[in-house]
Amino acid sequence: MTEPIFDLPDHWTTAARETVEEVLSVRPDLDGADLGALEQAAELISQADALRDVASAAGWVSRSDSGAEVPHRAAAEARQARASAAAILGRLVDVNAQTDRSAAGRALARKRWAR
To answer: What is the biggest distance separating any 2 CA atoms in the chain, rounded to whole angstroms?
Structure first.
């Protein structure tokens, strides 16, 4: 496991901390804007975890102005925060994935045409 190159904020959840460690193990070269993006993704994960806890404590429902039960707003906000974090993480980690897929594709093509 790669040691984080910055101090992880105390308010980050375990999931956010583990995500940072995992991404840094795949991308130890991360710096600049990419490192900032990773921090933002971890912040979003922590927010999503907190929002999930709020929605869960309320039984995942709340009351509309007319008194009808509706899905809790915090559940939707948590889902959006997770989607945003996933998009950021996908861009950070996919750089290596594309390189690895391209290299694997070239190796397969060489093997195929070498017959």
So the answer is: 72
Amino acid symbol at 15: A
Residue in the structure block whose two tokens are 């093997």 = 111
pTM: 0.76
Instruction: Please give the Cα distance from 12 to 78 (Å, whole number).
Output: 15
Main-chain phi, psi angles of 62, to 5 degrees: -140, 180
97 pLDDT band (50/70/90 cuts)? low
3-state secondary structure string across the chain: CCCCCCCCCCCCCHHHHHHHHHHHHHCCCCCHHHHHHHHHHHHHHHHHHHHHHHHHHCCCEEECCCCCEEECHHHHHHHHHHHHHHHHHHHHHHHHHHHHHHHHHHHHHHHHHCC
Tens of pLDDT, residue by residue over 49-93, are 999 999 999 999 999 999 999 999 999 999 999 999 999 999 998
Cα gap 89→81, rounded to integer Å? 12
